[in-house]
Amino acid sequence: MTKAELELRRHTPAHGGILGELFLNGKFVCYTLERVGVAIPLGGYQVSLDVSPKFKKLMPLLVGPRVPASWGVRMHCGTKPAHSEGCVLLGLAKMPTGDRIYKTVEAFEQLMGLLIGFDTITLTIR
User: Fold this and answer.
1) Three-state DSSP class for residue 107
2) In a 10 Å sphere around its CB, with 0-12 CB exposed, 13-18 middle and 19+ buried, how is residue 86 labelled?
3) Residue 68 has what pLDDT?
4) Where are the beta strands (DSSP E) in 54-92?
5) Which range is least confidently modeled, 29-43, 64-78, 79-93?
6) Pair type for strands 120-125 and 43-51
7) Cβ-Cβ contacts under 8 Å for 118 (sequence gap 6 or more)
8) CA-closest candidate to residue 33, choices 75, 69, 65
9) What burial letters (b/e) apply to 25-47, b meaning 16+ CB within 10 Å?
10) 26: left (phi over 0), alpha (psi -120 to 50) or beta
11) Residues 3-41: pLDDT tens digits?
12) pLDDT reported for residue 93
């Protein structure tokens, strides 16, 4: 059984967003961006890959003790905090101000390519 351990290291909130860095088994993958006020709580989550009813494609779904699957919290593309309703946005580049990320499609595709072969995926948000 192969296990993927994702770790999201959040930075201090600024300009309505929470910039972070995502690691897979200790290696940097991409930047993250979440919206202040709707970001999911710190802690551990199970991650499943399934087809999103909203986006109609295979995406990571985050599920934890305080975040049920029915909430539909995903990791997906988006460049600014307003693009998130609690989801984790992914990007390969960031603005120095921390309020935007870029190359989001590339980051999403890269992460999916890395995760697709694992049996179990977990995420820890710090």
Assistant:
1) helix
2) middle
3) 87
4) 58-63, 75-77, 88-91
5) 64-78
6) antiparallel
7) 2, 3, 4
8) 75
9) eeeebbbbbbbeeebbeeeebeb
10) left
11) 999 999 999 999 999 999 999 999 999 999 999 999 999
12) 98
Render pLDDT for 107-126 as a digit per residue (tens, 0 to 9).
Answer: 999 999 999 999 999 999 99
Nearest to 60 by CA among 122, 18, 125, 126: 122
89: amino acid identity, one letter: L
Burial class (CB in 10 A: 0-12, 13-18, 19+), 21: middle
- Helix H segments across the chain? 104-115
Tokens (6 digits) for 109? 């595709």
Tell me which amino acid residue 56 is. K
Quote the DSSP letter at residue 42: S
